[in-house]
Structures
1.
Amino acid sequence: MEKKILVPTNFTKHSWSALIFAMKLFKKFPCTFYLINVYSSRGSLSEAMSIHKEDDEETNASVSEKGLARIMQGLNFRKENQKHKFEQISFDGSLVEGIQEQVNKLGIDMIIVGSPGDTAGINTAENNKISKITEKIKECPVLVIPEKYETAVDPNLEIVFPTNLRKPFKPSELEHLIELAQNTECSIRVLYINTEGKALSTEQEKNKEDLLKQLAKVNTSYHMLTKTSPTTGVHLFIESRESDFLALYQRKQGFFGKIFNKAAIEDIDFDPKLPVLILKEIR
């Protein structure tokens, strides 16, 4: 089945790197990659995924279109998969509005976005472009790739998936986590942070059992850390194991919110230096 992948670009190195990562990630699949550049014709570029400035002689629209054309030209020299197709979208408006509109209209399977520097930049307190995408886009997973990330050559790659086990997962919500694990040949490490040192409730035990059953298609193990905060626990687990990916399930009252609330930020400045997959709640 063909995959539809949306890649926001502002014509920088990190957005190009995200596109190359996306092509490698889905190298075994027929895919259409939609390259979107968001600009503003209303004088402000603060919300746009764009680096160009207004010019008296050239409109933001034409700069956007020419930038996308250059990317398409560069892709002509890459022939990794003949089943990969590329489309370009130049959108006038806000970044979140532009991305969400394409998700809804095109039936996008995943958004893959590059982050500048060596971190994912997903901390919602920073209120940057990446955090706005991961926080506000609905019902479509987002994979964030730090610019300086390099995939390890290691037979023991792993994805850390923290959860509080309070709610069951729908199979459709875990589909992209399983797919990422299969495409990268990663194991999944389910992580439960037991902040109070209490035994799992009956409901949590059932949710744990159901989750592990759903993840049985890939190599999966369960881990628990006690008497630590969610933010610190996830950070220490990743650091100690040198994990390769982090997957977070975004539910308003769930684990995602606890990692990025104000108290957690004061506890530890957590901004992962590895790719982060944000799974979305499907209503």
2.
Amino acid sequence: MRSPVWLVVLLPLVTAACATTSVAYHPQKDCEAGSPDACADWADQLAGRGETLQAEAAHGQGCQGGLISSCITEGRFLIQRGELEAAELPLRKAYLEELPETHEALADLYQARGTPEDLRVASGLRFEAPAIDKPATEFIYSFRMDSRGFPGAALSFNVQPMAFLSRRLSLGFHMALGAGPTELNGFVGYQHFASSWTVLYARALLGHVPGAPPGEGLNYGGELGLKLCLGPLGHLDFAVGSSRFSPLHASVGLGLNGLFLLLFAMR
């Protein structure tokens, strides 16, 4: 019988605390006090009322406080008003964060300028945008099932720096084991960024099978796959493939940023 009594006592206190917290938050005043997040909230309210110049100024305060989303929005407001030179400062600040949306925003500025050189730069930024936040190296573990129903596994190390056509080209090492003879392969691949989080890829494999009779261990094959990207962390991997020593198989895997794993191993 005690629990309902405590609930009767505590419920008004909790309600009052929540109400106090809700009343205490005032986007305009908190923005003026130096809160970048409050400035973004205040800007959204102003934009919703059609007060775009005031919303632009509020996002400018948020950008000065280091809020990248406000830098992008301020820049786009300025582009809409034709203030292209003024838009470059917040968009350049956002660009330093190396995120897909920051590259796209700066590309909008160059697109608006419209000279042949500016359009070339805009095209380059859009080409880089979906790949910019992806890791340069990845370790991938995959579980495989072949067409005979036999399970297996694969370990891969993938190298995909921006220098390789903004991560469109990749190369690495691949080891398959479990369902048949162990394979040691190298690979080269091409990746198509359908979006910043969806990547289609194809790989050609060439390697050998340790312990095979001389002249009979040459291995070759290919793989088609789909990555669901997790930004700089890595990706989820789904693929189908086949090789001389592995029948047709499907796999699901997890790829992790090689730098993260290296730092973890050094601890």
3.
Amino acid sequence: MTTATIDRTTGDDLKFSVLGPLTVSAADGSQVALRGNRLPALLTELLFHANRWVPMSRLVEVLWGDTPPKSYVSNLHTYIHRLRGRGIPIEQIGGGYRITVDVTGLDLLTFQAEADAGRQAVRRGDYEAAAWHFRSALRQWRSADMCAIDQPHLELEAARLETERIAVVEECIDAELACGKAGELLGELDMLVRQYPLRERFAAQCMRALAATGRRAEALEVYQRSRHALVDQLGIEPGRQLRQVHEMILNGQ
């Protein structure tokens, strides 16, 4: 029979942030200290999977890679005990652990909840609400440099979450274009196209915004730059969506 043991501290007053350097804040705004490298790495992994069970094997892999010490079980228990001692609510379930956090207590959960709300608004056709929720989601990110902890497995997960962030940026811009905010988006889109030259959706959005504000020639230049980047770096031609936007602008639509 699987049993669960929960530390007496609930951690209700703690706020966790992983969308940027890891921080744990108390109710009075003071920061909870996590010294060394192991405690932040362990807590970050649990927060990346908040409210879900994380097997011990995964935590060992994050902390020590392929060469764990012989005492890894007792070492892991010690680290968990230290986190609990700081009021962090971690429960043990069989051969793994779980941290229980409210949506408002972790920026990652808030980001995901707001992004989901934005997508629901898109499905309803309410693009103003969708844009508001998407922007609220993106405001949770303090920095794209999420993982300052030198742990390859955490870096992979941080990269996956960064991909999620970029996708939400794309969804947000689509919603704002649908609201007629093309002129307001030109500066942001110019930066995104230059920062992500292989993201065809950003190029298509930039072209749409430029064309909507009467800058047709500049929109066609964006297409040429994007095409050259794709051909030079990936050896491929632009995809269907980008080609369609290009043809529509050529046809004056």
